[in-house]
Write a structure and sequence with these properties.
The chain is mainly beta and about 80 residues long. The protein has one domain: PRC-barrel domain (SH3 type barrels), CATH 2.30.30.240. About 5% of the residues lie in helices and about 40% in strands. It contains one helix and six strands; from the N terminus they run αββββββ. The protein has one helix at about 5-10, and strands at about 10-15, 20-30, 35-45, 60-65, 65-70, 75. It has a six-stranded mixed sheet with strand order 4-3-2-1-6-5, with no helix packed on it. A hairpin with a 6-residue loop joins strand 2 and strand 3 (about 35-45). The longest helix has 4 residues, at about 5-10. It is globular and about 35 Å long. The model has no long low-confidence stretch (mean pLDDT about 90).
Length: about 80
């Protein structure tokens, strides 16, 4: 999957069961390999952030390898897969 990082910023991101997780803010990249590791998401008001790993700015930290689809919105595969 190839996409520019700026194309992801400000996109809505949803769980595979339709729950809006929030809005993508940024990406975490391994500077040695160039591999995208995580997506940083400003959580939707309805999301219980205690169910997720969060960073110091209270953004949800989601594994990039769990992205299922990138179109008008981003869909995540279940995190337990």
């Amino acid at each position: 999957m190839k996409i520019f990082a700026e194309e992801l910023r400000n996109k809505e991101i949803y769980s595979s069961d339709g729950l809006k997780l929030g809005i993508i803010d940024n990406l975490v990249v391994d500077t040695k390999t160039g591999k995208v590791l995580h997506i940083l998401v400003w959580p939707a008001e309805t999301v219980d952030i205690t169910r997720f790993r969060v960073d110091s700015q209270q953004r949800i930290v989601l594994p990039f390898n769990k992205i299922k689809s990138i179109k008008d919105v981003v869909i995540m595969a279940p995190l337990s897969e």
